[in-house]
Amino acid sequence: MGPGDRVRPSNEAEAAHVGRRVLILGGGGREHALGWRLASSPSVAAIWSAPGNPGLAALGPTIPVDPSDPAAVVAAAEQADIDLVVVGPEAPLVAGVVDALSAAGIAAFGPSAAAAHIEGSKAFAKRIMVEAGAPTGGYEATEDRDAAHEALERFAPPYVVKADGLAAGKGVSICLDLREAREAIDAALVHRRFGDAGARVVVEEYLDGPERSVFGVCDGEDVVLLSPAQDYKRAHDRDEGPNTGGMGAFCPVPGFDVDDVDDLRTTVFRPVLRTLAARGTPFRGLLYAGLVLTADGPKLLEFNARFGDPETQVILPRLASDLGELLHASATGSVADVEVAWRDEAAVTVVLASGGYPGGYATGRPITGVDEAGVAAGLDVFHAGTAIEDGRLVTAGGRVLNVTALGRDVAAARDRAYDAAERIHFEGMQRRSDIAAIR
């Protein structure tokens, strides 16, 4: 039989026994990590990805489909007889891919477009936080330049200016003085640096303290918290340089693991889920809470509506239970019915990036050493921005590879990750040397 010729199991119990056919949307390091873990899930029979990458291609067929094109995604899922679609990036969520799949009767892990607005609009996210009574900082949102400049006077430095919409992780400015803050406002509202994403800005209270990422797998009413991770956003060591999509991460975070954040179910996640449900937009999927551990306790910085990158690359290697069952329960049932277990080891991932990232960078640089780096147990190399050209693996993005290692503790995992990263080479490669260098 061909890929579209499988006889679908007649009931849910039989489907779980046979294993589900899963389509992953996206082609970055997060999606490769999701595919890698799902491929080892007992409930999963086969993996497809769209558009995928060379790492995902090793797990199953790739489909040349734009993941943000709802009609094309539905057609591809139907042709491959997919049981569950797992949405990786935020853009397909905001574009309504999950809505289209649900209308076609295809289970999808991820929120509706209306619920995904919690990431698509920072002003909306702040409004939900306030309505839910969740702890966060003050803010003002406006489309008017003069009003935004006036709003700055009501906050103390450093000033936080954000483009309201999706800006590929580049729409946030932390400004030390009023001059910088006014320039950031003008860059968005006057010069349209971020296009439509910056047609409105959010001026926020600066939250001082270390940042932490907490992921909750939600079913519209309840949540299962995953092991928190810490990522590194700045391009260079000592948290210097411009913001990036993330240069590395580690998990667990000492003093901030699953048991330590259980109260966030009642203070953050469940109130937000109730607020969204009351609006008629229940949230199913991954709700990512970006927190700042302030002197007054954890406060919400932002919400994302999907797995974070590169945190996913350290959380999933520690997951000992069936990821496929958990994601399917989120999409179709109750997450409370799924048991989640964790390995004792720690995980560290180091991002290997193109020279110049997050600014301009070259692509098409040949990559060597990937197979040698990932040969040992507990060592994996996730493809983030790679391609195959003339039979060779080459760079195809800013963040190129994630080298991830397990170890008995964070220090051991860090040593293994950096040792493996030393085996990989491409022209202009850059990486931070202080990922997970905790004391």
Description of the structure:
The protein is of the alpha+beta class and 439 residues long. It is built from 15 helices and 21 strands. The strands form six sheets. It has a five-stranded antiparallel beta sheet. It has a four-stranded parallel beta sheet with strand order 2-1-3-4, with helices on both faces. It starts with 11 loop residues before the first helix and ends in an 18-residue tail after the last helix.
Q: pLDDT average, as an integer? A: 93
Summarize the amount of helix as a percent range: 25-40%
Q: Mind telling me which CATH architecture of the largest domain this is?
A: 2-Layer Sandwich
N-end to C-end Cα span: 56 Å
Kindly give the count of domains.
Answer: 4
- CATH-defined superfamily of the largest domain: ATP-grasp fold, B domain
Classify the fold: give the CATH topology of the largest domain: D-amino Acid Aminotransferase, Chain A, domain 1
- Tally of contiguous helical segments: 15
Strand order of the largest sheet: 11-14-17-21-18
Based on helices, strands and strand pairing, what is the structural class?
alpha+beta
Report strand %: 25-35%
Largest pleated sheet: 5 strands, antiparallel
CATH class bucket of the largest domain: Alpha Beta
